[in-house]
Amino acid sequence: MILYFSNELLSAKEKSILSNLKERYTIKFTKSYNVILNNDPNFKLKIEKRNNKYIINYGSTNYLLRGIGKLLAVDDLTHYEENENVHDFRLMLDCSRNAAPKVETHKKIIMQLALLGYTTYSLYLEDMYEVKSYPAFGLFRGCYSKEELREIDDFASVFDMKVVASIQTLGHLSQLFHYRYFDKVKDTQSNLLVDEEETYKLIDKMIETISSSLRTREIMIGMDEVHSLGKGAYIDKFGYEKQFPLFIKHLKKVCDICHKYGYAKPTVWSDMFIKLQSKTHSYLDLDVEIDPEIKNLIPNCKLGYWDYDTIDTEVVDKMLDIHFKLCDNISLVTGLTTWFTPFYKHWKSKHVLDCFSKSMKTNNIDDFMLTIWGDDGAYCHPDSYIIGIYHLAERVYTNDVDVNKFNKLFNLDYDKMELCSYVDPKVNGDLKRYFNKTFMSFAHAFFDDPIYGIGFKNEDAQNKNVLENTYNHYLQLVPKLEQIKDENHLYNLTYLFAKCCLLKISSRIELIDCYFNNKDMSSVIEKYKEIILIVKEINYKFSKMWLQNFKTYGIDVMSGRFAAMVDRYKFSISYLKKYQNKVIKSIPELEELKKELPYVRIKDFYCNLAVITINR
């Protein structure tokens, strides 16, 4: 629906919101209007139609924006209400794993979030912000200047949306140590050196930078997954110390720095509090015994409980009980499966989102966050996120997911988006118990080397049917994606990735059969030639997508991977021809497949699948 507003009836705030939205949505300012806005604290959201005019009664800006979003997505309605109590509803976007979104991309996302009722936009930054006194901080990474962060913050403030920095003040800083400028503050490969004076000077400048770039006095200080804490340079300099007291000591020092800059209650990820108490060193340990004294040791902060796979609300509820034994202030955090896949894995994550939104309401959690991670190069298409972002928002505000609203508001098709999400068929987490078949992951299928077949061999050791299952999955998926590939760039790129996986798996099956049964390899070679053409097309279209959405930094990572794959297949064609023409008597790499090896978990990182030798 086209929404018409009268300038004379709008507050300055309402006018500012609508002026920004009309750049992307069907909103106009005219004397003949069809929408009236009524700010009334007695309402959450109530839309009613009177005298051919739609009246949006709203209690706060997030409900106003949801009301506008609702009207934009319908042709007509007579009555609509939302009454859920929603306080801090957040989305966190990873800007540190290779892809740094442009400022304009952030603005596009902020508008989408605003129309769905999100109240906070968090940027996961690691080393992705300029710290003036440390010029090597974020070197060649496309880090954000103060001016860029302020521009993002100013734009979000139009919609009464906070922008919160999610930084790291202990672990996940391997990029910082890529060069030797920060050796003085390095403990292990990714951890800062606790108790080192220079470490706290650095952290002080980091937090000072954030405090002068973003207006909110909320901050996330990380500290998750620091398993090697105190086990590197720390031992050489200070001697051995147990991890938990070392962790708490560092946390207190960082919180003191936060307090200095006005951050009264910083958020820290919760996993290490539980892992260091667990007998199995497990985060999801429902039997962990929490020492009551620990609650008194934790400084004034909030704990972020994160989980991206659980679909059992009883498990989430029990984990929340454990967390409340540690801290009274809890942020519940789940995530979209956007890592190791070119398209967000909605078919899997929607079950997780449903679980967590239900637990959020059952436990009256007033701080709920959705995360989008970009592990291993951030090659997930950013336009694919929106279906998961939308799905969770509808669960939070209404319990229902209106597919038609999604289709009209974002000019996409919910069912087609979900179809694309099957480009990664691997079943993991709790969902395993609902499936009878085992599939390879997208990363295993796409990045595996044509000759070595590292992932193929390993998956075969786990389940002899996995190659056939995955081949049949793509065999069914590719024709369906082919039918929609010309509708937009997103569907087209997903189709190319799926088709490439189909060819890679089928050529692998055929290669093994031909080699060990002395069959002609001409068909394999022809498939390799087709793979080369598809990967070249993927590289071109992926680069185009990247440059539209992200800074130029980081594109070299994926371009290099695609180029290496093309070169590797060219080599493989030559290699197979030499064998077929009896120039060489055998292919030693394939001969090694005769070795009987047990299944071991190979994580989906490119370096685990595409290369053999560790070059350090």
Oligomer: single chain
Radius of gyration: 26 Å
**End-to-end gap:** 59 Å
Report the sheet with the most strands, covering strand number, pairing sense and barrel closure: 8 strands, parallel
Q: Which helices and strands occur, and which strands form pairs?
A:
Layout: E1 3-5, H1 12-21, E2 27-29, E3 35-39, E4 45-50, E5 53-58, H2 61-72, E6 79-82, E7 88-94, H3 103-116, E8 120-124, H4 146-158, E9 162-166, H5 197-211, E10 219-220, H6 233-238, H7 243-260, E11 267-269, H8 271-275, H9 294-297, E12 302-306, H10 313-324, E13 330-336, H11 346-362, E14 367-372, H12 386-397, H13 403-410, H14 414-420, H15 442-447, H16 454-462, H17 466-484, H18 489-516, H19 522-549, H20 555-580, H21 588-591, H22 606-609
Parallel strand pairs: 1-2, 3-5, 7-8, 7-14, 8-9, 9-10, 11-12, 12-13, 13-14
Antiparallel strand pairs: 4-5, 4-6
Helix pairs in contact: 3-4, 5-7, 10-11, 11-12, 17-18, 18-19, 19-20
Explain what this protein looks like in three dimensions:
- With 616 residues, the chain is α/β, with parallel strands linked by helices.
- It has 22 helices and 14 strands.
- The protein has helices at 12-21, 61-72, 103-116, 146-158, 197-211, 233-238, 243-260, 271-275, 294-297, 313-324, 346-362, 386-397, 403-410, 414-420, 442-447, 454-462, 466-484, 489-516, 522-549, 555-580, 588-591, 606-609, and strands at 3-5, 27-29, 35-39, 45-50, 53-58, 79-82, 88-94, 120-124, 162-166, 219-220, 267-269, 302-306, 330-336, 367-372.
- Strand 12 (302-306), helix 10 (313-324) and strand 13 form a beta-alpha-beta unit.
- Helix 3 (103-116) runs parallel beside helix 4 (146-158), helix 17 (466-484) packs antiparallel against helix 18 (489-516) and helix 19 (522-549) runs antiparallel to helix 20 (555-580).
- The longest helix has 28 residues, at 489-516.
- It is globular, with a radius of gyration of 26 Å.
- The model has no long low-confidence stretch (mean pLDDT 96).
